[in-house]
């Protein structure tokens, strides 16, 4: 989320500052494995409130930036809500 918010400077993106509560940073992912694929903390509850139950829908602020993202050529796409 830091990269998207600070470098791309998207309006109304990451309103909660990375806590996983606002869901303004919803993304679609593919190829994410290992620790980067784990949904924990507030992410499952926040996504559930929005009706998302797909494993590939994530909050970008909750994706750990690790070497796992490079293993399977991970892709992250910003969703328009």
Automatic annotation (TrEMBL):
Task: Cite the InterPro entries for this sequence.
Answer: 2Fe-2S_ferredoxin-like_sf (IPR036010), 2Fe-2S_ferredoxin-type (IPR001041), Beta-grasp_dom_sf (IPR012675)
Q: Which domain of life is it from?
A: Bacteria
Occurrences of domain 2Fe-2S ferredoxin-type (ranges)? 10-66
Q: Which Pfam families match?
A: Fer2
Protein name per UniProt: 2Fe-2S ferredoxin-type domain-containing protein
**Source organism phylogeny:** Bacteria, Pseudomonadati, Bacteroidota, Flavobacteriia, Flavobacteriales
């Amino acid at each position: 989320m830091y990269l998207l918010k600070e470098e791309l400077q998207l309006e109304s993106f990451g309103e909660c500052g990375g806590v996983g509560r606002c869901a303004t940073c919803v993304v679609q992912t593919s190829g994410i494995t290992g620790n980067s694929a784990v949904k924990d903390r507030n992410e499952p509850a926040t996504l559930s409130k929005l009706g998302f139950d797909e494993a590939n829908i994530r909050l970008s602020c909750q994706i750990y930036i690790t070497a796992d993202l490079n293993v399977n050529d991970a892709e992250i796409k910003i969703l328009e809500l």
